[in-house]
Amino acid sequence: MSSNPDFDRWYAARQVKFILSPSHHLETFGNTLVNYHLVSELPDYPGKVRVREGRLEAHPPLVITPTAANLTAEGFSPAAREYLEFLRRHDVSLAILKYGYHLKSDNFSEQILTESLATVTERVKAAVVASGDRFAAVMQGEDEPWDVALVELWRREVDKSARTNISELKAKGKLF
Predict the structure, then answer these.
(1) pLDDT (tens digit, 9 = 90+) per residue, 37-78?
(2) Smallest Cα–Cα separation from 32: which of 152, 141, 130, 137?
(3) Into how many domains does the chain fold?
(4) Which of 21, 22, 130, 164 has its CA 20 to 30 A from that of 158?
(5) Residue 144, domain extent
(6) Is residue 106 part of a domain?
């Protein structure tokens, strides 16, 4: 990490590589558990790779007005919370629906392996594909601040799901 936390946060957000994204959109009328697998090289230990696994819980989207957008985040670093705050202030699509703005990273585990990044990533991807989990994601990212990648995953899934969620809310008469 550098001595500039702003640089670290933006660098981490832009370096995330999505190897496998969830194949299904965030649920419109129920909670969604997104199972993440983040693979990263340990910068000070050549040949060491960390695999972090856990889940993010997204609540059903609710129609909101821009003034009602209060964010909370639990279990995230200051860098990830600051990135989330930036997205709240600048991403127009988040002003329409509220997607579980209380992000909670739980069921977390990690392991360190002595193999190449490519080998570990392919093995994790193969295991996730074999599981058939429609809500699983495999990413490569920075080791620190690693949880910025989770905020970026959440942002991408909201972007990907919004159109379908809006259509489903309209169909049920729950949008405006």
Answers:
(1) 999 999 999 899 999 999 888 888 876 544 334 566 778 888
(2) 137
(3) 1
(4) 130
(5) 5-165
(6) yes
